[in-house]
Amino acid sequence: MHQRVISIKTTVRWMSAYLIICGIIPALLNEMLWKTISNGSSAAWLHLFTLIALNSIFIFVLIKKYQLNVGVFRRVSLNGVLLGCGSAILFFLVLDKFLDPLLDRVFVASAEEYRQTIAQLRRYPVINFIRVCLMAPVVEEILIRGCILNSLQDKYGIAPALLLSTFFFSVLHFNFVQTISALVCGLILGLLYIKTGALVSCILAHSLYNIISYLSVIGPVNL
């Protein structure tokens, strides 16, 4: 299958559509529908199922409509797996243990917003584990690395595609502290994809990092 040539303008439309369909719409449904017909964890589960459904449909339609050559398990190798695991550990040490605490002291308002997010995660740890550690890494890597980086690389070359895809990745993380960390994370994940050509390596790195980070703030006993 020959992949269509994709422009920056097209990828901006993809991101705009994704933020609306998989961000704004599920949030509105959660506030206006699920929380009115269910209480507590039931509403949270309905919100999770909505996210999974809309994200799955969006990615499927995007790949089919634009004939994107995305192979999740293509070029799997031991080297790629080891690089993915190493990247996850690197993210945790550099971001969670060094950069994020430093930024917390500088950007107090963003740090407080992030702490409120952590408190919300603790309310439904299992549901949020599925969303943050399993669903989000798969969807974001397929979208950012598999669709956007891969497509832009064909038209604009490696460096512009890497920088643009890193920017788009940071857009998915609205909190300022998270956005700066996402720039670092997105750049390394992009380099990992360029180095290995294996999307599964990026998914592994992203998911494993989220799991380590999640358990460090939530605690394994709560799961």
Summarize this structure briefly.
The chain has 223 residues and is mostly helical.
Low-pLDDT residue intervals, each spanning 5 or more residues: none
- Quaternary status: single chain
Query: What is the rounded distance between the termini?
Result: 43 Å
- Sheet-strand content, in percent, reads under 5%
Whole-number total of structural domains: 1
Mean pLDDT: 90
Question: Residue share in helices?
Answer: over 70%
Find the count of extended strands (DSSP E, 2+ residues): 0
**What's the SSE pattern?**
HHHHHHHH
Question: Shape, please?
Answer: globular
Largest sheet: none
* Count of DSSP-assigned helices: 8
Structural class based on helices, strands and sheet pairing? mainly alpha
Measured on Cα atoms, how large is the radius of gyration? 17 Å
Task: Tell me what the structure shows.
The chain has 223 residues and is mainly α. The chain has one domain. The chain has eight helices and no strands. It has helices spanning 8-37, 41-65, 78-106, 108-123, 125-156, 158-171, 176-196, 199-218. It is globular. The N and C termini lie far apart (43 Å). The mean pLDDT is 90.
What keywords describe this structure?
223 residues; mainly alpha; 8 helices
Give the SSE map.
Layout: H1 8-37, H2 41-65, H3 78-106, H4 108-123, H5 125-156, H6 158-171, H7 176-196, H8 199-218
